[in-house]
């Protein structure tokens, strides 16, 4: 039986996963202050609202699908699914938008 510290560590990973996603989707309007980026988002993704929905739908569809489950606890499988999604971010068609929103990774910005 795992001790409480193992579970605490698992739950501390959640903000590391969600933080960059939230930062990106919350800053889409700010990114559109640049005319070129606004045109890219409108032309490629159908606008800010569609892009936001696409990013969130993809994460919620695949980030909690249980694909990482090894028969362990529920949190293990869901966290592994989320980390699997994170590891494939550079293959997503919206990855350039993450980069424009100052995305550096899911392990946090250790320069601050």
Write the layout of secondary structure elements.
Layout: H1 4-26, H2 28-31, H3 35-45, H4 48-62, H5 74-87, H6 95-100
Helix pairs in contact: 1-5
Describe the structure in your own words.
- The structure is a single chain.
- With 112 residues, this protein is mainly α.
- Helices cover 65% and strands 0% of the residues.
- The chain is built from six helices and no strands.
- The protein has helices at residues 4-26, 28-31, 35-45, 48-62, 74-87, 95-100.
- Helix 1 (4-26) packs parallel to helix 5 (74-87).
- It is elongated.
- 10% of the residues are buried.
Tags for this entry?
112 residues, mainly alpha
Question: What would a concise description of this structure say?
Answer:
The protein is mostly helical and 112 residues long. It contains 6 helices and no strands.
Shape: elongated
- In round numbers, the mean pLDDT is 85
Radius of gyration, Cα only, in angstroms? 16 Å
Low-confidence stretches: none
Helix content: 55-70%
Alpha-carbon distance between the termini? Answer: 37 Å
Separate helix tally: 6
Strand content: under 5%
Class from helix and strand fractions: mainly alpha
Q: For the report, how would you describe the main beta sheet?
A: none
Number of strands: 0
Reading the helices and strands in chain order gives HHHHHH
């Amino acid at each position: 039986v795992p001790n409480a510290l193992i579970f605490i560590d698992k739950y501390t990973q959640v903000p590391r996963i969600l933080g960059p996603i939230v930062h990106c989707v919350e800053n889409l309007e700010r990114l559109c202050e640049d005319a070129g980026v606004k045109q890219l988002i409108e032309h490629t993704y159908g606008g800010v609202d569609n892009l936001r929905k696409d990013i969130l739908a993809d994460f919620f569809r695949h980030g909690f699908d249980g694909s990482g489950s090894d028969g362990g606890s529920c949190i293990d499988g869901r966290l592994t699914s989320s980390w699997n999604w994170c590891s494939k971010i550079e293959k997503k068609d919206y990855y350039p938008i993450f980069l424009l929103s100052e995305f550096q990774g899911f392990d946090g910005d250790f320069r601050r």
